[in-house]
Design brief:
8 strands; 2 domains; 18% strand
Length: 300
């Protein structure tokens, strides 16, 4: 699917979200006081309207928001199932719709649309894949806490459960802001094509964005070696090979380390599209040739 189609699919799924997910969620809240049901409904509609507007203003912050909220909606529908109040049909429809929304939200094309929203007309940004270790639990937990902590705190206060509500509110809002900032860092990691060459913009791996002029680039190819900036991403790495050494300030355990190198490895979410764009951007692209099996000489 093209980026344009994915963007409109995301908007369509979000428009239908209240009609798909809210019946199950609202049924699961029936045993709660009326004030809690009202607060949940008002908060849900405000969130829905805000995200709907954000989908028409694609920026990196939009990507961070939808990737935190979409799984939270899925979690809320699944949580409603634990109350055993929603009907099977409402649960199936709500889970299916919100799961499809979450899948679309995490497509590489969705990230591409959002990060290129504020880009200049003559530049093209390609998102970098998240660090692999974060996908094994920390990223999912952080996303859940960003929405879950402040929401739980507010609803508990509305339900007049003062002590637990106050604790979650006082602790939850600052922690949610801190985690949201960390998640937003993942939305600001790009490999960028600009008229002069390419830029690696990765605040998690580099102290500052680095421009590599076209004339110093030898080639871009599937990864072979160099300074590893992939952060363990589960994607095919690309090697940016230079004609001369470049000085980089690499971040390691939050410390800056100066490195001189002629090659570096990056991990875009769509390496094939990056290579194709590089070829059209007058940057040499090298594709490893398959090994030719040795043949025995014919007997005389």
């Amino acid at each position: 699917m093209t980026d344009h189609i994915v963007a409109w699919l995301l908007r369509a799924l979000w428009v239908g979200m209240p009609f798909a997910a809210w019946p199950a969620i609202s049924t699961g809240l029936r045993s709660e006081p009326g004030a809690v049901q009202t607060a949940a409904a008002v908060g849900a509609w405000v969130m829905w309207a805000g995200i709907l507007i954000a989908t028409f203003v694609p920026v990196p912050a939009t990507l961070t928001a939808i990737r935190a909220i979409a799984p939270a909606v899925l979690g809320a529908v699944i949580g409603a199932a634990a109350t055993e109040r929603p009907s099977t049909a409402a649960l199936a429809f709500g889970v299916g719709w919100s799961a499809l929304l979450s899948a679309v939200v995490f497509l590489p094309q969705t990230a591409t649309v959002c990060v290129n929203g504020p880009a200049y007309a003559n530049e093209r940004r390609f998102p970098l894949a998240p660090p692999g270790p974060l996908l094994l639990g920390p990223l999912e937990v952080a996303s859940a806490l960003v929405i879950g902590l402040p929401t739980a705190g507010v609803l508990l206060l509305v339900a007049e459960r003062w002590l637990l509500g106050a604790v979650l509110t006082v602790v939850g809002f600052p922690m949610s802001a801190l985690l949201a900032r960390a998640l937003h860092g993942l939305s600001r990691r790009w490999f960028v094509f600009v008229p002069a060459g390419v830029v690696v913009h990765d605040p998690m791996a580099l102290a500052d964005p680095v421009l590599f002029p076209r004339e110093v680039i030898e080639y871009l190819a599937p990864g072979r070696g160099g300074v590893d900036l992939t952060l363990g991403a589960y994607r095919m790495a690309l090697e940016l090979r230079l004609r001369e050494e470049a000085e980089l300030e690499v971040l390691h355990n939050r410390r800056r380390k100066e490195v001189a190198t002629r090659a570096l490895l990056i991990a875009p979410t769509m390496p094939g599209r990056v290579l194709a764009y590089a070829a059209g951007h007058r940057i040499p692209v090298a594709v490893p040739q398959p090994a030719v099996p040795a043949t025995k000489a014919a007997p005389p």
